[in-house]
Amino acid sequence: MLKKMLFHWKSWWKSVYKQNHFVLKLGFSIFLVGLAFRLLFSRSDVISEVQETPFVQKILFSPPPVSFSLPEVADQIGPEEQAGMCNLFIGDWIPDPAGPVYTNETCKFIEDHQNCMKNGRPDNGYLYWRWNPRNCKLPRFNPLKFLQFMRNKTWALIGDSISRNHVQSFLCILSKVEEAVEVYHDKEYRCRRWLFPSYNLTVSVIWSPFLAKADIFEDYNGVSTSEIELHIDKLDTSWTDQFKDFDYMIFASGEWYVKTAIYYENDTVLGCHYCPKKNFTELGFNFAYRKVLGNVFNYILSSNHKGMIFFRTATPDHFENGEWFSGGSCKRTKPVKEGNFSLSEVNKILHEIELEEIGKATAKASEKGLNLKLFDVTSLSLMRPDGHPGPYRHFQPFAKDKNAKVINDCLHWCLPGPIDAWNDLLMEMVLNGQ
Ligand SMILES: *[C@@H]1O[C@H](CO)[C@@H](O)[C@H](O)[C@H]1NC(C)=O
Ligand SMILES: *[C@@H]1O[C@H](CO)[C@@H](O)[C@H](O)[C@H]1NC(C)=O
Ligand SMILES: *[C@@H]1O[C@H](CO)[C@@H](O)[C@H](O)[C@H]1NC(C)=O
Ligand SMILES: *[C@@H]1O[C@H](CO)[C@@H](O)[C@H](O)[C@H]1NC(C)=O
Ligand SMILES: *[C@@H]1O[C@H](CO)[C@@H](O)[C@H](O)[C@H]1NC(C)=O
Ligand SMILES: *[C@@H]1O[C@H](CO)[C@@H](O)[C@H](O)[C@H]1NC(C)=O
């Protein structure tokens, strides 16, 4: 039945389209995430809409993952909240007249695509907010105290371009006390390491969008020449090789899983996600993500790691009034209240898998004396539709033509911006063992 469906996916899609509005919504969500990748990882300054067309068609007119089931909305209220205790990730964004601790003038680590100030974003109200957990106090990140505490320590952020976005915020804040010095980068500047010399603290960012072994066939514009080959049973050696050298690690993944990929196990094809032209079983991205996260956590659990390991959940995009290719944008200038923005179906699925897999792992970790922590920024990020570069991914996009047609980036985060608050949260978790 399943195979038949896949072979006749066109007519199947038509009938589903008529019957099931949800599938349509899912299609669009997947589409959005798909776009996000192009924005995320392409290095060209112009993303051609023409180039995108085949990709768009592929996503919109392919069947959704068959093995997919709609998760319940994650139940975020744990026993601590019932007892009135502190959950750092439940709260509100409140006005903060103090504003950011660094600017485009004082920090040299901000990547051009996220340097909204330099690129001419006209409003700055989005800078004057801080995250306020409902049942606890969250102090501002104190870079001096942090550096003193982190003498001789090694940190690593492992994941995709959102991890890169985060490391820049981290470096900008710490560099208020002492400027970081780059001590390593790979050819493509995807894996890098910095040192804070007086404190002998090193901070690395490791490019590993799947956390598992993946062969990716994409050019600089993010145009793929072949499907990604993802080995769901093999972890990415770019981080496992260095795992024992790091005292603190922040893992993150998710978004790349929505892309077309062929899944391998024991070096043989097991199935795929979105490959209608190939005669492989559609397994769904949720299958692969769950499997790989399970493997990542098993790897961590079987180590005797003495430091602290965080898993950061995937963050949502905020395209409104269209999709990224049809004029969708993120023009808001203020945070929203909880519930004003809803999580896309794709992000709900990713988040649900993350919570389930880390939930299982943290239970075992505490038995073993490992320090594994959930860093659940999905909901607080969802309330910040105002925090993305939008058109200001590029320098002065409207300088020549104020009606210029530009593609918006509603996925990455302006720096300074909302993700600076992630460091307040990290500091609290590290120093006060939350
Ligand atoms: C920083 O941004 C301001 C606009 O907010 C701009 O005038 C200035 O040139 C930028 N400086 C740098 C070094 O990018
Ligand atoms: C850092 O390492 C150096 C050299 O190994 C050592 O002398 C020093 O005591 C260490 N400091 C801390 C705070 O661990
Ligand atoms: C710096 O820290 C590393 C551990 O991260 C340690 O091995 C090394 O000895 C330290 N170096 C100095 C000069 O303190
Ligand atoms: C891969 O190997 C493992 C262990 O040998 C086995 O359990 C599993 O079924 C194999 N998977 C495939 C798809 O061959
Ligand atoms: C597709 O795969 C099935 C089972 O693996 C096989 O029986 C069938 O012949 C294949 N079809 C084509 C067109 O290769
Ligand atoms: C969200 O906020 C916007 C702007 O304030 C408002 O127009 C919209 O109705 C709100 N939507 C929901 C679901 O609360």
UniProtKB/TrEMBL annotation:
The domain of life for this entry's organism is: Eukaryota
> Which species is this record about?
Solanum bulbocastanum (Wild potato)
User: Any idea what this protein is called?
Assistant: Trichome birefringence-like N-terminal domain-containing protein
Q: Which GO terms describe its cellular component?
A: Golgi apparatus; membrane
InterPro entries assigned: TBL, TBL_C, TBL_N
UniProt topology in membrane = Single-pass membrane protein
User: What are the subcellular locations of this protein?
Assistant: Membrane
Q: Which PANTHER family match?
A: PROTEIN TRICHOME BIREFRINGENCE-LIKE 24 (PTHR32285:SF219), PROTEIN TRICHOME BIREFRINGENCE-LIKE 9-RELATED (PTHR32285)
Where would I find the Trichome birefringence-like C-terminal domain in this sequence? 138-429
| Keywords for the protein's UniProt record, in alphabetical order | Membrane, Signal-anchor, Transmembrane, Transmembrane helix
- Residue ranges spanning the membrane: these are 21-41
User: Where the protein is mainly located, per its record?
Assistant: membrane
